[in-house]
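Hi everyone, sorry if this is the wrong subforum. Our group has a chain we'd like a structural model of before ordering constructs, and none of us has done structure prediction before. Sequence below.
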Amino acid sequence: MPRREDIKSILLIGSGPIVIGQACEFDYSGTQACRVLKEEGYRVILANSNPATIMTDPDFADATYIEPLRMDVIKEIIEKEAPDALLPTLGGQTALNLARELAEEGILEKNNVELIGADADAIATAEDREKFKVAMTEIGLGVPASGVARNIEEAREIAKKVGLPLIVRPAYILGGKGTGIASTNEEFEQIAERGIEASPINEILIEKSIAGWKEFELEVMRDKADNCVVICSIENLDPMGVHTGDSITVAPAQTLTDAEYQIMRDAAFACLRRVGVETGGSNVQFAVNPSTGEQVVIEMNPRVSRSSALASKATGFPIAKIATQLAIGYTLDEITNDITKETPASFEPSIDYVVTKIPRWTFEKFPGSTGVLGTSMQSVGEVMSIGRTFPESLQKGMRSLENGRRGLNADPGEHKFSEIEDEILISKVGIPTSERLFQLEALLRRGFSIERLYEETSIDPWFIDQISIISEERMALEKQTPEELSPSEWKRAKQIGFSDAQLSFLWGCSLEKVRELREKSGVWPTYKTVDTCAAEFSSETPYHYSTWEDENEVLPSEKPKVIILGAGPNRIGQGIEFDYCCVHASFALSQAGYETVMVNCNPETVSTDYDTSDRLYFEPLTYEDVKNIIDIEKPEAVIVSLGGQTPLKLAGVLPPNLIAGTSPESIDRAEDRENWNQLCAELKIPQPPGGTAKDFQEALEVAKKVGYPVLVRPSYVLGGRAMEIVYDDSQLEKTMDEMTRFGSLGIEGGLSAERPVLIDRFLEDATEVDVDAVRDHEGDVLIGAVMEHVEEAGIHSGDSACVIPPPNLKKEIVELIESNTRKIAEDLDVKGLINVQYAVKDDEVYVIEANPRASRTVPFVAKATGIPLAKIASRVMMNTSLKKLREEGFIQEPVKGDHISVKEAVLPFNRFPEADPVLGPEMRSTGEVMGIDLTPGLAFAKSQIAAGGALPTEGTVFMSLADRDKSSGLEAAKGFLRLGLEIVATGGTAAYLEENGVNVAHRVAKIGEDGTDAVRLIRSGKIQLLVNSPRGRGPRADGDHIRGAAAAEGIPLLTTAAAALAAVEGLTDWKKYPLSVRPLQDYHLGVFKSEVSENE
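Answer:
Right subforum, don't worry. Here is the predicted structure as tokens:
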């Protein structure tokens, strides 16, 4: 069937900010959808609140609305744009839930908007647990014994009937939020109450727990003509009981017989047809009883999912792109496979390699979290690796994680197990954690049998046997020296996935020596192609992975090449913003005539789409793997400064003549504290007093000299890793002790372990300012933007809201900051991007640090100002001057207009109820949103709605403030009262407010005192907004409990007085002006304040 001609414009809803359970896989799917629809000639309208994504670039849609993803806002966009259709299946759970709300409220029908891709009935059948269970039973598919409850009484009845252990699954949720397994009645009551709250329709499915069964997923597609294909089968290494997003998964499935696979395939198609997904990709999850082979359907997603991104990258089959083509009327047999250029999309992919996905957790960012994996997802990112065998693929994945590990043990990280006795280690391996496979491999070397480990873990014996191949090879290698190894022994070690770094650890020699001896033996990697068809047809697309065989499939080419090193797995402190920069570099340099070569290992991103760059290598970002690619591709340059800390760590070890842009020496000068201090002194730019220390004694001397409070941090880190604000000697001792131990700091591995600790005077109550700029080789500097932070200095810049243009800085202060930035860039001889952070206190400007690389604010600056900094920087790094880029029309003048842009962080505390949700110098946000409007108040209010913390327009504000915040808190309290909100406060805060004429409706008791305490009050649902600033670091138990309760109840929480003042301004403007939405394209042409009308 040809494409639909009756539709002219299509609204796409994105997935919003990166949160746990919904990462950048929807940036990849949304970007593909926008591209396809534009190519097909449709008018594309996009709504998404995330500025860090490629899809919100103004080039990808005709009208790009960076607005909160809430029903009233989408309704406004629909009324303004009048789209013919809404495609909701490429924006994750967020888009699907919004589509359901819009359909239920009659907004789609009233505005004649058709749902394409999946209709409202299909969404309800798949997402509503009761409807799904009935549908599966109707078509004869097995489901676990279960019942559906909408309140706790119904839940108790079902629990009695079904019997413990039970699993609770809320309807319409994301990343397993609110799910849990209960073994006792007490656990069940808690989990059921949490689940009912987590579900937007207050509905939970209670089913017999099948923890310990094997888990599989099939990624399937269906078109209007009822053609169905399986794109990929995926097997979870962890048994049921661990959320699939937190499980190591393997494609294709390894332990199913052909007969079992065919039964599962038929069941998946039957499920797809019954649910009513007419077109597009879906994901069906199964559990298999390891003893009997019985199969049950667990759930299905009627949309592109996290697994779709994995299946896409694993097979080379572009699921999101094809799902979009099916939604506009094509059938699978009419669409040509991009990679082979001759097979149709109805031809099922087959693969002749093994793909492993490993999640990336950041438990170290949340002290107090247990690190135990369960049915609610906790990982923030993932890596994917491709190898010819499972051991090779697994070890490649392990060294891709950017957590200091070099593979499956055989590295310094394994020492933590060597002290543990057998019985303790065997009891640990039964508990699913991020360490489990490392423990399992250690136990195999200690002689534990496969059977015993299967008993303890329920991990299929096949996987344990494969891991034992790694252990046996390691033990054989330890008995030899590298000089003794024959070429075939070298090859075998590499085919089992051992990295040069692991071998250097086992033999106690240098990495250089291992590489030299391996190359002397003639053992080099070969590169194979991902071709969707197991080499049955020739592949037209250069999408490669390394292995250790005889034939190389990399084709020679004549064009000058640039290798761009990607950002690796998403993690806190290193997110999608860096992928955005890498993709922009690829686009800009391709356009300038270079052949671009992308190296990355993250399956969720746009950078690992096979059509983003001219060549793609799906490889770990380690020295060995990158150097091998340099040897085969022979590039003119390698870009290391756009992918965050991951590639930057390689700057010092790769050939210096190949590093594009700012030299490794300059990067080092900015990082090296003594060099940096000297540079600031010579330029006469003030900085907070400080020093460096290697141990507690030295730290004490620095602290005495500069005075408390001090900011303590390691050098060479990203995301404020292990930063602390320290108020006294005993806290300093504890912090220094943590810094010197491997546990807390070494997780990111690399240089920081050998570098001194930096100690600076901490400027309390200063305003923090960020600047992004580009300097070229002729010394010309382009200032992207000066950003003012809402939270005062001391909150990590990645967690603080920031505003363009700066609303409270005097003109001369902004000019001084710009001039200092130019001087610093000049002195460091920057060629490319630089980010400089300042603190402004009493009109004095202090420089805090400079980073000559891409920062996480680059995409936000581009969306706010219309200046594509990353594209400009990538051309500048290849020696094109800013003057020449202006002549080419590549750099436009900054937008003239009155709009204000606010970037706000999105925090994952609802996933880590044990961690204190207070902001500090260590970054904890997973993603960001942007609010854009014509007053600072409106922009801030939109940013809060988009971040999920919509400010209340009525109800009660609970205030509990540290002494230093009370004067600003007083202004905020007066503002809340003016807005008609009621105030309740803790004793000290209430007394201060009342003394200053503010009416406090109720004094809240301290925890443990008589009367209603704060936590009870929050849990009772009587509080709509919480303002609670911590009293420095140290024992402050009440504050922890109060903030923890707010995070658990989902109540907006502000932990600084500055944010409370911004909230008052936001609410004031929200009441004063009507809701209005404008596309980014309009803002980039210039929109003026005169266009805003007040409410009648």
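For your construct planning: Residues 742-753, 1033-1037 have pLDDT under 50 and may be disordered. The two ends are 51 Å apart (CA to CA).
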